[in-house]
């Protein structure tokens, strides 16, 4: 996924990438923002590790690569960005969990979702 926040205070609410066992197990984010100043531009990724008393603040600086678990262990959000903010996100999947998610979808709908392969 390629993300572009337009820089008008846009962020992303606190969430978990894999809340319902869709197969995503590791989230990888690569930042593409040269000369980023988090004090001026915002756009910090806040990670709220489950069971911990601290929050991890990750500045979206150029050439930074971030990995974290995609499930409930790492709820996270993007704080408002006041400059155009770019990131590429890739998810690593657990093959068995992914197959079970596809089967659940087929059983509920009788078809394959477009973004799932057969």
Automatic annotation (TrEMBL):
Question: Can you give the residue ranges of the Fe2OG dioxygenase domain?
Answer: 1-94
Q: Which domain of life is it from?
A: Eukaryota
Catalysed transformations (reactions)? L-prolyl-[hypoxia-inducible factor alpha subunit] + 2-oxoglutarate + O2 = trans-4-hydroxy-L-prolyl-[hypoxia-inducible factor alpha subunit] + succinate + CO2
Per the UniProt entry, what is one GO biological process? cellular response to hypoxia
Keyword field? Dioxygenase, Iron, Metal-binding, Oxidoreductase, Vitamin C
**Required cofactor names:** L-ascorbate
EC id: 1.14.11.29
What Gene Ontology molecular-function terms does this entry list? ferrous iron binding; hypoxia-inducible factor-proline dioxygenase activity; L-ascorbic acid binding
From the record, give the transmembrane residue ranges: none
**What GO cellular component is one of the record's annotations?**
cytoplasm
What the entry lists under InterPro entries is as follows: HIF_prolyl_hydroxylases, Oxoglu/Fe-dep_dioxygenase_dom, Pro_4_hyd_alph, Pro_4_hyd_alph_FE2OG_OXY
Is ATP-binding given among the entry's keywords?
A: no
Supply the PANTHER family for this chain.
Answer: EGL NINE HOMOLOG-RELATED (PTHR12907), PROLYL HYDROXYLASE EGLN3 (PTHR12907:SF28)
Q: What is this protein called?
A: hypoxia-inducible factor-proline dioxygenase
> Which classification does the entry list for the species?
Eukaryota, Metazoa, Chordata, Craniata, Vertebrata
